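Why do we care about 3D structure at all? Because function follows from shape, and shape follows, mostly, from sequence. That is the central idea of this module. The next example makes it concrete: a single protein chain, its amino acid sequence, and then its structure expressed as tokens.
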Amino acid sequence: MSSGALSALDSSPEWVICPQCRNVVYGKRLVRNQQVCPDCGRHGPQPAAERLVQLLDPDTVEELDFAVHSGDPLRFVDTRPYAQRLREAQVRTGLAEAVVCARGRIGGHPLIVAVMDFRFLGGSLGGAVGELITRAAETALDERLPLLIVTASGGARMQEGAISLMQMAKTSLALGRLDEAGILTISLVTDPTYGGVAASFATLCDVIIAEPRARLGFAGPRVIRQTIRQELPPGFQTAEFLLERGLIDGVRQRSSLRTVLSRLLAAGGRERSAVVAGPPVAEPAAADPAEPAAVGEPAAVEPGAVEPVAPAGDNPAWTAVKAARELNRPTTRDYASRILDDFEELRGDRVSGDCAAIIGGLGLLGGQPVVFIGHQKGHNITELAAHNFGMPAPAGYRKAARLMRLAGKLRLPVVTLVDTPGAYPGLEAEERGQAVAIAENIRLMAGLPVPIVTVIIGEGGSGGALALAVADRVFMLSNAVYSVISPEGCASILWKDPAQAARAAAALGVSAGELLEQGIVDGIIPEPTGGTGVDHALAAARLRATLLAALGPLVARDPVELVAARRARFRAFGRYGAPVPNEEGFADVPADIQ
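And the structure:
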């Protein structure tokens, strides 16, 4: 690191007044606390040098000297000449410009980093700043390393006129090349990030993490008030405000950033194993063969090799429906915590919202990075309500699509868990294009050039389920169900009586065994005696083993062959033989639905 940048670490004032709580804080204590107020938690501006030391592994920081020089194309003068402002900023900060670029490691994972420093002319985007961001991106491309950009900016640098404007395009094109090359990009948004930076590289990265209360937006509150006289809601443009509206992936405390970034790099970086594999894991020994006495991981389940486990009762299909809806069954989040290492949830569709009925993110499955997505319900009424009873809105499907496109870019397998009564049928969902969101997911999955494995873990309801289930391999838990419509819905339409739901369930062929016979699913994962709800650990172990067994051969396949086989799989459904006419010349129709 340059001597100028290092000197910034030793220049903190002796005492500082926190702008938020107005308490007096010892300057060196504030530096040790990473510029976070120990009294109110305000995340203050952090010099680029401090940021690099905070984020990167010790002794791995190698500053990249790109020898970029600032220009004054307009010979701009306001109250002072622009050239004078530049020199003063350089002397005050010890930096050549508002960005410091470096090579280093986080959690042992190599990457390229570009850190903006707000102290240098408000981190404004001028020609030199755009050039530094672009060169950092080009270095990441050349070395095939992930790129992390830490943003802090008031917007475009007005003193450079249209040259400043062009930096938005230049940096966006540079990130586009990283997209084409399948290289992970991460944006860490700090307070504030506005204008041309917000409308280019800050929001174009694969993952956007923000610090608490960090502000991000194109037009700042003052501009909005002055221009259109609009009253702004509380917390407008803060990280929390944006997270709720699906525009960023997460809000993280400064102290946790290294851990979060390390997880993302582990899953999305270029260092990954070629094939999912691993030794088979034996079922735990049990005193009673019908009831395991201890939790363990079973041997991998071969596709199609598991015999259906029929639920007890006079109507196995209806029994399965009731079992699939039990609240004690593990949810997607429960399975993620048990079968994945370093799962990092990503949120938002980057358009309109974040639907809690679908969760997803990056994680490691047996050492293999995967994109993990699933419907989320809950174990009680509070959790169910918070996740809309597992019924996604369009934002949920668009979030899933965004994560699947990320999987395609990074060449990561996709694992989806299905557990939904169906897509949310409300007014707002229809206004926001529910049908379009589902259709686009189905088309996207059909052509995604990475392995996809789906497991129906509870209810698989209609198109709301299929939007996460166009996969190379589809499995079901033994008490799960999968259907074109809910039994109650079918009974209401065809029997004109919702009380005929059990009869409808039997007629629809919703059970795992029937779907295996039809070839809709490739295998059945046996549930613990009494169902998955009685032993979450054993259920997760069996699920994990099945996923590992299925992904191994798929990861090794050529992407073109993979997509062709997936399309052929779904192309084959519904190819019936010619109907056999009865005496009247018509094909027979079951009497109970005539």
